[in-house]
Amino acid sequence: MVFPLTNLPVLCSLSDDNILETIRPMHSNGKDNYNGEFSQPFFCWENKTYSQERLEQKIGTMHSIVQKCKIILYKSDECLIEDKFNDEFSQPFFVWENKTYSQEISKLLNGEEVTIYADITKSDHNNKNAIKFNEIGIKFRYKPEDKAEQNNMDNELNNFILSMCHLGDSYYKYNDKFYKIRNTKYNIICGFKKDNDGEPFPRNEIYKKIKKGELMLSPYTMWKIKLYNDDANFSKLKKYEKVVDLELVELGKYIQNSNDLSRKVEKYYNEYKIDLL
Questions:
Q1: Secondary element (H or E) of residue 193
Q2: Count of beta carbons in the 10 Å neighbourhood of residue 195
Q3: How far apart are CA 211 and CA 82, in angstroms?
Q4: How far apart are CA 104 and CA 123, in angstroms?
Q5: Of 159-168, 190-199, 230-239, which range is least confident?
Q6: Can you say how many angstroms the Cα of residue 232 is from the centroid of all Cα atoms in its chain?
Q7: Which of 45, 82, 99, 147 is found 20 to 30 A from 73 (Cα to Cα)?
Q8: pLDDT tens across 23-78, in order?
Q9: What DSSP string runs through 72-132?
């Protein structure tokens, strides 16, 4: 069982309310029938059109299988790791350093939208396979480290809201090969300010559903990012534009390196050839 390159572990982590909601779009053509455009192996679903009644029957059967799998421990579970991707726990998913991305960082801190690429080939997580995220955000990291200045900047950022648009192509590394999975765009919106439980507010439904729904989205993609707030003053952020790195952070899962990474996934996914030279 490979995660996120197969669907069973994904479904096992869904709440009951989210299972039907997650499956329907994969087989829906927006009309009365549902089709099999979703190309991954999916509980023996055929590439055909289903009536709504038949679809509900198949989902009911699949739901029963998922409920059983939720209480069964698999050998592969020991290699499936959840982690906080930030400086306090692991490392960020990705870091855009000021020395290379000063222009993009400056634009962000002046209220402009930037398009920026998190390149999987430049990730520091070489021992982690098939990284996906459940929560995503950015952190402006003061360099060199200065806790007082970091706190001052974080307090100013609490007045802002973050818009992060995942532009669709998710890149994964598995067993020293790279794969690309195409999806639709998702615009994730959340505030920098968090409550006592660490939850950001405000936030949109996309943020909440990604957190609960275990969608297969990689942090390694092209991002479109913007800060905004009608009443906030960007001039207070401008002074940090030369002294901060931009980090891609929050909660994710990955497959730990082990001796059991031999599953052949090329049957279902196309290898993405990347020139590393």
A1: none
A2: 9
A3: 13
A4: 19
A5: 230-239
A6: 28
A7: 45
A8: 444 444 444 333 333 333 344 555 556 677 877 787 788 777 777 766 677 777 78
A9: ---GGGGGEEEEEESTTSS--SEEE-HHHHHHHHHHHTTT--EEEE--GGG-S-TTEEEEE
Tell me, what DSSP letter sits at residue 194?
A: B
Q: Which two tokens stand for residue 173?
A: 């590394």
Query: How many residues belong to the chain?
Result: 277
Tokens in use for 185? 């765009």
**Could you tell me how far CA 250 lies from the centroid of its own chain?**
9
Residue appearing with tokens 């009644």: 53
Backbone angles phi, psi at 155, to 5 degrees: -65, -40
**Number of neighbouring beta carbons within 10 Å of residue 218:** 24
Which three-class secondary structure string do you get for 17-51?
HHHHHHHHHHHECCCCCECCCCCCCCCCCCCCCEC
Structure tokens at 123: 């990730």
Let me know: does 120 contact 172? Beta carbons within 8 Å: yes
Q: Which residue has the tokens 């994710």?
A: 252
Q: Which amino acid is at 29?
A: N
Instruction: Give the tens place of pLDDT for each residue, 72-102.
Output: 777 777 888 999 999 888 899 999 999 999 9
User: Residue 86: CB partners within 8 Å, gap ≥ 6?
Assistant: 92, 139, 247, 249, 250
Question: Given pLDDT bands bounded at 50, 70 and 90, which one contains residue 192?
Answer: very high
> In a 3-state reduction of DSSP, which class is residue 97?
coil
Q: Amino acid letter at 40?
A: Q
Spatial contact of 42 and 19, defined as CB atoms under 8 Å apart: no
Determine the residue type at 277. L
pLDDT value for 134: 94
CA–CA distances in Å: residue 222 to residues 3, 24, 186: 22, 27, 11
Structural Rg of the chain based on CA atoms: 20
